[in-house]
């Protein structure tokens, strides 16, 4: 321990006392029964006993000395040392009452002692190294370290051992032996509805679902036939277990390895943390793993680079110590473990986002590279869970990432087509050069070869023989060729931007992508720059090929050169792709693609690119080349009972064998649980007075219904204007301020409601933080856009009113949307009806699916788009609702209907 002082006397865990500003609750970390309430010190923080170590709230990592020799440490600082894989969690202990705060503090006590045990088990040399890093810049860090080491070595052990966590609810422990799983599809479906079958794994909490049994039967049948299946399963039908059980049964019978692809991590978490473990007793021999893209795991090459960073300040020392402690305990080296980490989150890009490939010499041997470790573990698993993006990238990489599999289930399948399009999109932007420069170093015209090439050339030149001299010269020539290529590429992008700006001066500058109809017309003005770029790119590619040939002729390589040559090979691949993509984009000749420019906000263009027109064609080719008969499922796949739209988008049209379709209805009673309302007197969504009308309705509703409300928009502009109207409305500012009138039938008046909270999403804001706050508030109105249309759950009182301001049509002048419509029209279809309307119906169904999530939920959906009544396609949307809508003539009638519904009178 440093000589500056003693270790703190006692350790106290602190949480703010609910409902008592300036008051804190303290729990003795050595005596779980010792809880006290104290005031606040003048400088902030709880007034703890003198000389004590106090663990307190704080958004950032902070450590400071207290009067009397004590220390005050924030939770992020403490958990960065003791719990590096979850250091970003629970920076603040927030409870609504004192009992809840006491439970949180005791939970933190259990966490503290569990992590102290892990701290004690660390390699002593590592602990000394991390202590020395921190103590070199802050004596208080040494005192904290000594306190933690002393606690970890305490002979009395964990004082919370007798203070157990809350017991599991009765009935949750499953009986040991469910009825054996049958083989036939119908029998398997019946097993899922049998209390002695699937019910045995859930105990008293089990509720049979006929819809789940129906879906499981259909999935089992199609898996057995090897026939693709497109199956919609309504909310609450239990679709994950309905496909998991027959899928795992098929794998266990030897049908081959399986892959499950989802769009969201939340669903992956549900599968891996809940559903698959619950089914494990049925399939004890099956191994399951999740595999994510390589940027979600720490590569050994990036790890070695990061460990070599200089340590010249306390912050740098904390980063290095935190990194070493994380490496010692992380099971998988995953990026998500460092989300919110007080020291390492700022370095996630440096740690995980490098374009460098894994090096055969550095990463492919041993088990120290988390990327390779994750891929090996996934290939050894019987069932691997991935996201849609990795599934598509695996196909693009020749199915080398996930490994071979025979069975595929795609959940959240309605999200797969846009992911497929994005994966195959060609994009020429400044980042292309940045990525290559990250590999070989910054290239400066006239500045000689970049440092990476110069260093490699010097080591090669030190080898004996003419071959080595030739290889070194070729490396220098590659640097010159790369400099010429990058200069020409930047000039080309600049020329495109200048030409675009010159044309934009004669009209309003577009906000989104602009379609390129004719490559010769669009790029003709910069023909000279294009020709020069293509020649320079070809020259760079030839220079890399010359390096590769020269290196192959070397009898020996210098130590470490194999890793550098792997990096250089990746750069060579990217140079070749750059030339190929520029040729493709400027030609704009393939009718199966749409070509576009993406304007920058103020001047120039961000990118030139191209996107395939048909996701279905890409997917069908992937399915058939791989010999897969996928099961594709979601809560929204059909328009009414018609699957034609997504059947085409998912690559199952003209498929052999023909795909089967099935619709599994939701078990929820929407006629009883939900009220669907439309309004006659709303202005059209494109009218300037529409946001004000929405704001007035929101104000009226929250005054009469006093329920948590989500208002869905399709554009930030309308959302922002509506938020401004609400902020300027005195009635809106006073929402929920007054308590409701007491019910004379009740013995006591209802408690006052909290003050209003209106949350408005903004472009670039963290939607997760907004969502978390909306969940915390007892009364709130959330104005949200695309982020909240799907993928979020609001059960029970978390959401009771859902307002859809506008039908979620695709942007009509988006180049891809425009080109798709034109292609369908040219083929004799009505592109608007068969594509745009059907897509919007599915998006609407996703949006209203946020409301009813459980059998006891109740809520109201309000549709404000007047086109439901004024346009012929409106009936298509109304017929797609899960219950018949009610038509209201004005806002006053609508508000009364809503109030009656929640009062139980409607």
Give an overview in words:
The chain is α/β, with parallel strands linked by helices. Helices cover 45% and strands 12% of the residues. A hairpin with a 7-residue loop joins strand 1 and strand 2. Helix 20 runs antiparallel to helix 21. The chain starts with 10 loop residues before the first strand and ends with a helix.
Please summarize what this structure is:
The protein has 906 residues and is of the alpha/beta class. 45% of the residues lie in helices and 12% in strands.
Layout of helices and strands:
Blueprint (H helix, E strand, L loop, with lengths): L10 E6 L7 E5 L2 E8 L14 E4 L6 E3 L5 E4 H8 L15 H23 L3 H12 L3 H14 L32 H8 L17 H16 L3 E5 L5 H14 L5 E5 L2 H15 L8 E3 L9 H8 L6 H16 L18 H5 L7 H4 L6 H11 L2 E5 H9 L10 E4 L5 H9 L1 E3 L2 H10 L10 H11 L4 H39 L9 E3 L2 H5 L3 H26 L8 H27 L5 E7 L5 E8 L2 H12 L4 E4 L9 H6 L10 E5 L5 H4 E6 L10 H15 L4 E4 L3 H12 L2 H4 L24 E3 L6 H10 L4 E4 L16 E4 L10 H12 L4 H18 L10 E5 L3 H4 L3 H6 L6 E3 L2 H12 L4
Helix pairs in contact: 2-4, 3-4, 3-10, 5-6, 6-7, 7-8, 14-15, 15-22, 16-21, 17-18, 18-20, 20-21, 25-26, 25-33, 29-30
Radius of gyration: 31 Å
Number of helical stretches of at least 4 residues: 33
For the biggest sheet, the summary is: 7 strands, parallel
Corresponding CATH architecture of the largest domain: 3-Layer(aba) Sandwich
Please count the beta strands (DSSP E, at least 2 residues each). 24
Major sheet: order of its strands? 9-10-8-11-16-7-17
CATH class of the largest domain: Alpha Beta
Whole-number count of domains:
5
Would you give the CATH topology of the largest domain? Answer: Rossmann fold
Tell me the β content. Answer: 5-15%
Distance between the termini: 71 Å
In CATH terms, the superfamily of the largest domain is: P-loop containing nucleotide triphosphate hydrolases
- What's the pLDDT, averaged over the residues? 88
């Amino acid at each position: 321990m440093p000589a500056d002082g003693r270790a703190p006397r006692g350790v106290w865990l602190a949480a703010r006392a609910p409902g008592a500003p300036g008051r804190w609750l303290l729990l003795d970390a050595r005596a779980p029964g010792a809880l006290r309430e104290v005031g606040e010190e003048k400088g902030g923080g709880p007034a703890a006993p003198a000389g004590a170590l106090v663990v307190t709230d704080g958004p950032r990592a902070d450590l400071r000395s207290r009067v009397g020799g004590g220390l005050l440490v924030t939770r992020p600082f403490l958990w960065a040392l003791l719990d590096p894989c979850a250091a970003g969690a629970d920076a603040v202990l927030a409870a609504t009452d004192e009992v809840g705060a006491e439970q949180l503090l005791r939970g933190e006590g259990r966490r503290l002692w569990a992590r102290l045990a892990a701290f004690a088990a660390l390699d002593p040399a590592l602990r000394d190294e991390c202590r020395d890093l921190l103590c070199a810049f802050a004596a208080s860090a040494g005192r904290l370290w000594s306190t933690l080491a002393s606690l970890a070595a305490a002979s009395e052990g964990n004082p919370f051992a007798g203070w157990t966590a809350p017991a599991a609810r009765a009935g949750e422990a499953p009986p040991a032996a469910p009825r054996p799983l049958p083989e036939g599809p119908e029998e398997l479906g019946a097993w899922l509805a049998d209390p002695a079958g699937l019910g045995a794994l859930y105990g008293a909490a089990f509720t049979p679902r006929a819809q789940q049994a129906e879906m499981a039967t259909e999935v089992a049948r199609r898996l057995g036939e090897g026939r693709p299946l497109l199956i919609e399963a309504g909310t609450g039908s239990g679709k994950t277990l309905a496909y998991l059980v027959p899928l795992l049964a098929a794998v266990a019978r030897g049908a081959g390895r399986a892959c499950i692809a989802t769009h969201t991590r939340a669903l992956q978490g549900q599968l891996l943390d809940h559903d698959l473990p619950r089914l494990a007793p049925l399939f004890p021999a099956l191994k399951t793993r999740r595999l994510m893209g390589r940027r979600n795991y720490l590569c050994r090459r990036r790890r070695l680079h990061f460990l070599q960073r200089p340590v010249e300040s306390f912050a740098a020392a904390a980063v290095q110590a935190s990194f070493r402690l994380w490496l010692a305990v992380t099971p998988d080296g995953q990026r998500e473990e460092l989300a919110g980490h007080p020291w390492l989150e700022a370095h996630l890009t440096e740690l995980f986002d490098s374009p460098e490939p894994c090096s055969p010499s550095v990463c492919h041997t041993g088990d120290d590279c988390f990327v390779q470790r994750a891929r090996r573990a996934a290939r050894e698993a019987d069932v691997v869970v991935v996201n849609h993006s990795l599934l598509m990238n695996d196909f693009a990489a020749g199915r080398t990432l996930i490994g071979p599999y025979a069975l595929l289930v795609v959940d959240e399948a309605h999200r797969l087509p846009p992911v497929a399009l994005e994966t195959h999109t060609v994009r020429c932007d400044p980042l292309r050069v940045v990525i290559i420069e990250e590999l070989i170093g910054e290239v400066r015209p006239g500045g000689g070869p970049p440092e990476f090439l110069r260093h490699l050339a010097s080591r090669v030149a030190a080898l004996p023989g003419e071959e080595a001299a030739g290889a070194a010269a070729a490396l220098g020539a590659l640097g010159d060729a790369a400099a010429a290529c990058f200069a020409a590429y930047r000039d080309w992008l600049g020329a495109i931007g200048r030409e675009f700006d010159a044309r934009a001066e004669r009209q309003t500058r577009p906000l989104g992508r602009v379609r390129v109809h004719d490559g010769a017309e669009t790029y003709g003005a910069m023909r000279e720059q294009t020709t020069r770029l293509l020649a320079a790119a070809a020259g760079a590619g030839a220079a890399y090929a010359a390096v590769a040939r020269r290196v192959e002729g070397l009898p020996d390589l210098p130590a470490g050169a194999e890793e550098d040559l792997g990096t250089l090979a990746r750069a060579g691949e990217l140079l070749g792709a750059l030339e190929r993509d520029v040729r493709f984009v400027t030609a704009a000749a393939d009718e199966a693609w749409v070509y576009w420019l993406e304007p920058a906000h103020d001047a120039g263009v961000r990118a030139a690119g191209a996107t395939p027109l048909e996701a279905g064609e890409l997917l069908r080719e992937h399915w058939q080349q791989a010999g897969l008969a996928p099961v594709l499922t979601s809560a929204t796949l059909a328009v009414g009972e018609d699957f034609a739209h997504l059947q085409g988008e998912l690559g199952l049209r003209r498929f052999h064998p023909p795909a089967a379709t099935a619709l599994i209805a939701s078990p929820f009673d929407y006629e009883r649980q939900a009220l669907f309302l439309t309004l006659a007197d709303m202005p059209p969504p494109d009218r300037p007075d529409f946001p004000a009308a929405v704001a007035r309705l929101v104000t009226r509703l929250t005054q009469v219904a006093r329920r948590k409300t989500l208002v869905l928009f399709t554009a930030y502009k309308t959302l922002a204007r509506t938020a401004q109207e609400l902020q300027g409305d005195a009635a809106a500012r006073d929402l929920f301020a007054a308590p409701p009138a007491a019910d004379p039938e009740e013995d006591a008046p209802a408690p006052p409601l909290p003050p209003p909270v209106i949350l408005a999403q903004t472009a670039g804001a963290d939607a997760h933080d907004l969502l978390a706050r909306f969940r915390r508030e007892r009364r709130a109105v959330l104005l949200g856009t695309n982020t909240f249309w799907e993928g979020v759950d609001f059960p029970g009182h978390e959401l009771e009113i859902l307002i859809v301001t506008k039908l979620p049509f695709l942007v009509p002048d988006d180049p891809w949307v425009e080109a798709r419509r034109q292609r369908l029209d040219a083929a004799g279809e009505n592109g608007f009806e068969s594509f745009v309307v059907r897509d919007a119906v599915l998006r609407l169904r996703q949006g209203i699916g946020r409301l009813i999530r459980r059998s006891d939920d109740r809520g109201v959906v309000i549709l404000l788009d007047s086109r439901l009544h004024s346009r012929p396609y409106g009936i298509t949307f109304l017929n797609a609702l899960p219950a018949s809508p009610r038509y209201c003539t004005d806002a006053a009638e609508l508000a009364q209907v809503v109030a009656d519904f929640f009062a139980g009178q409607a």
